[in-house]
Amino acid sequence: MSLPMRESVRVKRDTNKTSAEKGPEAASIKMNAEGLKAWFGSSLALKGVSLPIVDKQVTAIIGPSGCGKSTFVRCLNRMHEVVPGARAEGTVMLDGADIYGPGTDPVLVRRRVGMVFQKPNPFPTMSIRDNVLAGMKLNRVAVTDRDALVEQTLRQVALWDEVKDVLARSGTSLSGGQQQRLCIARALALEPEVLLMDEPCSALDPIATARIEELIHEIGKRVTIVIVTHNMQQAARVSDHTAFFYMGELVEYAPTDQLFTQPSNSRTEDYITGRFG
Amino acid sequence: MSIALAKQATSIEPRRRITDVVMRGLCVAATVIALIPLVAVLYYVASKGVGAISWEFFTHDSSTPPSEPGGGMSNAIVGSLMVVGLACAMGIPVGVLTGVYLSELGRDSMFARTVRFTADAMSGIPSIVIGVFTYTLIVLHQRHFSALAGGVALAIIMLPTVTRTTEEMLKLVPDSLREAALALGVPRWKAIVTIVLRTAAPGIATGVMLAIARVAGETAPLIFTAFGNPHVSTSLNQPVGTMPVLIFEDAKSPYDELNRQAAAGALVLVAFILLLNITARLVVRRKK
Amino acid sequence: MKRPDAHDTEVAIRRRSSLDVNLGDRTFRLVTAAFAAGAVVILASIVVQLFQGAWPSIARFGAGFLTSSDWDPVHDKYGAVPFLYGTVMSSLVALMITVPIAFGVAIFLSELAPPWIRGPLGFMVELLAAIPSVVYGLWGIFVLAPFMRSDVDPILRTLFGWTGFFSGPTNGHDMLTGAVILSIMILPTIASISRDVLRAAPPTLREGALALGATRWEAVRTAVLPYVRSGLVGAVLLGLGRALGETMAITMVIGNSDRAHQSLFQGAQTMASKIANEYAEASNDLHLAALTEIGLLLLAVTLLFNLAARILVWKMRGPVGQRPV
Questions:
Q1: Residue A3 lies in a domain
Q2: H/E element, C94
Q3: Could you give the ipTM of this predicted complex?
């Protein structure tokens, strides 16, 4: 069954990727959620989700408001339980080790699984330079060449040329889009293996959004990315795999072009054709 | 009928208008009346006190007999600095840490609510009662007055203010900053100390400045804790003179010279307090 | 970058040791909680210590302490009635003077004043509160008391002398002057909180009344004031609580007489001023205990008033905090 494609939902694929990179044999699983449940107090927000995250590829999580996509992603770096009264159960494997295992320290998990939030949140008391280095400083990670790290990271997020002369300025003196790129740089400086992005562009204008989507293309070659978005077109543009959530459950998970052109579940079809949400 | 309505629609009855104007006038008058004492007191202190301000005032102590000229308040100035300094050393850390607990860790727990309630209750206790408490706690046992006792009394007075300010300023720090720090793999306590506290620091400093301004002018609790000392003393265990207490004694004195010294002391004290208040206000304005 | 295998990851995200489990977090929590507990400990100690200190007097005089007017250190007889009377009377008179003015200020600052003047005026009202009590007392001795004696009291005597409250000569150091200076000192408290309470009223109340054709004053009177009534009562109670505990300024102008008189032109003594005057030179243990008992009474009364006040103000605008930043 092939659906007539909505004009706006056109899937752009990165033609530089070789088939070997895209094929299932070469794609290994970086993180794997199994039977993940999450509560806010007594209300169940995630009802047992099992979802693999493919290494060094971009996985998009889509779904209507309140479907649990942010909750799911926040479970991937154990940020969900930071909210008072929130808890999670189940298994989430990171390279074969369960991050919800009994001996695991969530703080250490978060150093390997980084996060970028919906609203840019650079530290206001720190300069741009110090914001980039914040992760290293706070974690007492030795850095042999600070300036080189700052330049390298800022280049990764295409911010270097814009701020290289004003590194001492406060992190909040930048525009919204620049602040978000700064936050991405701050997360990347720690060299995380996975980068979680929770609706990173919702607070930004279209131009800033486009720049961040370019970033995702670039970074996605080296870092596993999971991006939550309410914008289906964005999901189609940037991701290799897409997961559709509805009311706390994973409804469908498939390679992006397949999910958007030949969804196997009728609810997915209803959502992407705009019948609800 | 329509003409009558039209008439009413375009003008209010004179009685209502007059009432409105009169009441508004009364409110303005009230504000003016309220501010008269402020101007009067400041004017008095400035005009009577400025004549007695001299180099001697700051360098000589108050041991000079009142009939002879050339006394000063150096002992009281040093004493005040000491006692207020002690109060800060004790009151600020306790207050800030308590505020941190209330805002970041305890939040709404039963214990936190009890602490909050206690701090609020304490802020209403008259300072003289705090003085009596400190007397029975420290002075009675040590059998002598001391700067330390004075410092403790002032620290207790400072404590609720600093706690409340810290908690409120910390609560103003947006949660997104806490999450940003945690997402970088920073343990919670480090996130609080390095990010949250730092962000709230200007606001907390303001509250602390105002608390200092308040205790610097406190007299009642010092009368029977630090007591007084005609000479400069820097010992913690000796009674020590303080500005408010010396002003009090000099004001009651029948000697004109001492009355003038009281005014001079009041001028210095008020200037110091005003300075702190204005600085605090400026910090707040700049943050906005 | 070498891809970590399962074992590496497990090692990397496992806690360093079972002791290391959030050690920093646990310690931090314990330390801050301990300091927080300190506040409760201090309040409890205050109550306990005062009680202990006052016990000899409580045991000796019991309820008679509250009914006797005899304060006689020489014969070791102590009764606190004159001071209770002085405290209550001076506070009541102070409230009568200050409440209308404070409300006027509050309404002006929150409703009627042009926006550009609200900040500076509000700041000046706060400065009133920042001036130390002893400085007010100083001004009271040399400016207010003489002024009262020569300019105000004669008028009051002529107009109201028949009531019995304004009879007899005075040197300016009397209950009335004490009440006046007290009213100045509690005005900022009542005005600030009332202003906050008024500001917390939803603007739609005011706007609704104005839209119906009410004048500014009528809008305030009919729409806003009834809504904030309990908050205003709370503000007055807080002011009263402050008045009860006010010490220095009133000690310096109230005349320090140990008897209760009807006329406001007579000297008087409040609980706080009594303690301030005699505590440091208490002649014996019972004397000290009696003074401490006064302190205990003062503590109980102010705690009660503050509690009642905060409950009322809480209802209106959430927990009472510092001056709004």
A1: no
A2: helix C81-107
A3: 0.90
Residue A51, domain extent: 21-272
Selecting from A123, A139, A183 the residue whose C-beta is nearest the C-beta of B185 gives A139
Cβ contact, residue pair A104, C4, below 8 Å: no
Q: Do you know the residue count of chain C?
A: 325
Domain tally, chain B: 2
Q: Give dist(CA A259, CA A59) in Å, integer.
A: 12
User: Which residue matches tokens 């705690």?
Assistant: C303
The CATH number for C60-317, chosen from 1.10.150.20, 1.10.3720.10, 3.40.50.150, 1.10.10.10, is 1.10.3720.10
CATH no. for residue A188? 3.40.50.300
Each residue's pLDDT tens digit, B141-200: 888 899 999 999 999 999 999 999 999 999 999 999 999 999 998 999 999 999 999 999
- C7-60 pLDDT per residue, tens: 555 556 665 554 455 788 889 999 999 999 999 999 999 999 999 999 988 888
In a domain, A11, yes or no: no
* Domain of B176, in residue numbers: 59-287
* Range list of β-strands (E), chain B: none
Closest CA to C126 of C77, C48, C56, C190: C190
Show the tokens assigned to B191.
């996130």
Handedness of CA B115, B117, B118, B120 (dihedral sign): positive
Per-residue pLDDT tens over the stretch B196-223: 999 999 999 999 999 999 999 999 999 9
In a shared domain, residues B40 and B138: no
Residues 219-258 of chain A whose Cβ lies under 8 A from any Cβ of chain C: 222
Under 8 Å between Cβ of C175 and C88: no
Between A86 and B14, the more confident residue is A86
Q: Where are the domains of chain C?
A: 60-317
Nearest to B150 by CA among B245, B252, B250: B245
Q: Which CATH number fits the domain that encloses residue B119?
A: 1.10.3720.10
Whether the predicted pLDDT of A103 surpasses 90: no
The per-residue pLDDT of chain B, averaged, comes to 89
Considering the domain boundaries, does residue A67 fall inside one?
yes
Searching chain B, which residue's CA lies closest to the CA of residue A83? B179
* Closest-approach residue (CA) in chain C for A109: C13
Query: Are residue B7 and residue B132 in the same domain, yes or no?
Result: no
